[in-house]
Amino acid sequence: MSLGSLNITQEAQALTALFKFTASSVAPSLLLESFMMGVLCACVPVGSYMLWVKPLSFPRAPSIFMLWIVLITSITHWALSLRQLESTLSGQ
Question: How many domains are contained in the chain?
Fold first, then answer.
């Protein structure tokens, strides 16, 4: 059912319920993801540097590559979650 087939009162009630759901479930998880993104953005370069500088018995390049893949995947997931939240809040 689309919002266009509802009267103004029903549409307002549906949007209010949607906003309450978003505020109680989506926004807290997005805040946690944002915090984790900050941690990853700080730790991945430091971890890459530490792996590159210290001589280790295992190959460094795959480990560094995996760190950056995790960071890129997390950034992509976070950006898509933020986009979904924006579209939900705009009523689309």
Answer: 1
